[in-house]
Write a structure and sequence with these properties.
Elements (H helix, E strand, L loop, with lengths): L58 H4 L12 H11 L3 H4 L4 E8 L3 E5 L5 E5 L4 E11 L8 E10 L2 H17 L3 E2 L5 E8 L10 E11 L7 E10 L2 E8 L6 H23 L4
Antiparallel strand pairs: 1-4, 2-3, 4-5, 5-10, 6-7, 7-8, 8-9, 9-10
Length: 273
Amino acid sequence: MALRRRTRTRTGVRLCGGALALTLLVTGCWGGEDDSDDAPGASPSPEQSEGASPAQPDNAFLKFVHDPSRQPKNVAQAVRIARAVAAKPEDWGAGYVKSDNYESGPGRTPELNDDCVWEQQELPDSEFASIVRRSELPAKGDAGPLRVSAVVTVHRTQESARREMARTLEEPLRCPDQQLNGTERITGLRSGGDLSPDPSGDTDYLQESGELHSDLPGSPHPYVWDVARTGTVTLAVAVEGANGYEKSEVLATGSKALGIMAAKVSLHMGVRK
């Protein structure tokens, strides 16, 4: 499974120290905190469905405050945080397993080139580390496989993380159709977000969705790419739909995993209560 991330091209979008409020079909996904690396998030709201009204995140997400004293000082520390946060198969749900090429990074990352094709590039100096993990829910009967992936990038500064969010928001405007690899491409990609600031200025969120054309039966299928920032850490999840899954299930799968990872970032890098 190929994984998208973001382009390095310059954009006129500015986040101005504020946040992208969570606006697209993710009510209830931001969980509370736990004392372990596997702190779960709450299950997606049963009201989540295609065409639902925009929603705001709950206080667990908006009240995140980055603690500068817990910011990693070097690559090794950043890699430990990224690996603690990146979603494992069990974070996605029962039955998920590791995909081939389960983990990659921490020194390279997928990038969108000028031809709207994804390729591997070295991390820029503004980032400490980036970890990618790929999982899937194997095919069963007429359903699946449901392929998912998670990216955790630890930036050196909040400004660097905000620039990534701005680039991601701009990306579908430049490339609404994107080539993931030799057998997968996305068409009709759309991006949504709200530039209203949250109380702390430490969190952003946006969502992209489109149609994934692949070699799976029934193609094209729904595709969703959820991206969030908590302090100096950016989080992203991708879910590739398949036969047997409604678009609302694809959306809920992504928001649940992103909520779990957001809770883990708060555990490792947020202000201690």
